[in-house]
Amino acid sequence: MPEWYLYGRYYKRFGYMSAKGITDMLYLPNLVFNHFLKDDCLLVAYGGKIVEEKPEEKYRLDRYTGFDEMIWGNEIITILCGARKYSGYDIRPYIEQVRQKKEWLQKAHPSEFGKDVWDCDVDLLFVESLECPECKRSLRVMRATDTADGGCDVVSHCVWCLRDWQWHCDVQGWQSGFERYFHG
Ligand SMILES: [Zn+2]
């Protein structure tokens, strides 16, 4: 399967979804329940635009036409990163919306998501990880420093062999220059 088919849980089943040829996306955060992304939805169109045709409809999903897929939960991050990489999409406005969702959650549900009990680095959520070449397991991204080209320099850690790795990630999310990282 081509690499732009991204693995995840879609429509409550594990499978693949294409991140190529995406022409429009609409993020619909749920501002009722105490979940970060679980009840949020991302509408995706592979051709044309998503239109709010019936704003009076009670259920928000009934208001829109022009979308082909609905993405829920953590796969929203997967598909947004894929759209950046394989569809050349500028996802910065979506990252900003996810950041606003996080801030809403912290204010609306302080006992579970207040700043002293929960935190999440939204920018790091959108830094795709790579595999440790020794352990073949996903590295934990520790840090991403913005660079002049609009991308970032990433430092990551392997919790299995405790080695650190670094690479550069360009503005579309393509990685290069993978190598060992030594502190200091
Ligand atoms: Zn390792």
Outline the structure in words:
With 184 residues, this protein is of the alpha+beta class. The protein has two domains: 5-122, no CATH class; 130-180, no CATH class. Helix content is 20%, strand content 30%. It has helices at residues 75-86, 92-108, 110-113, 122-125; strands at 5-10, 13-18, 24-28, 41-45, 51-52, 64-65, 69-72, 140-146, 152-157, 164-169, 175-180. The strands form four sheets. It has a four-stranded antiparallel sheet with strand order 8-9-10-11, with no helix packed on it. Strand 1 and strand 2 form a beta hairpin. The radius of gyration is 18 Å and the shape is globular. The chain starts with a strand and ends with a strand. The relative contact order is 0.12. Residues 132, 134-135, 158, 160-161, 163 line the site of zinc ion (ZN). Zinc ion binds next to loops.
Percent range of helical residues: 10-25%
Quickly count the helices: 4
Bound molecules: zinc ion
Which segments are poorly predicted (pLDDT under 50) over 5 or more consecutive residues? Answer: none
> How far is it from the N-terminal to the C-terminal residue, by CA?
41 Å
Secondary-structure map:
Blueprint: E1 5-10, E2 13-18, E3 24-28, E4 41-45, E5 51-52, E6 64-65, E7 69-72, H1 75-86, H2 92-108, H3 110-113, H4 122-125, E8 140-146, E9 152-157, E10 164-169, E11 175-180
Antiparallel strand pairs: 1-2, 3-4, 4-7, 5-6, 8-9, 9-10, 10-11
Bound molecules: zinc ion.
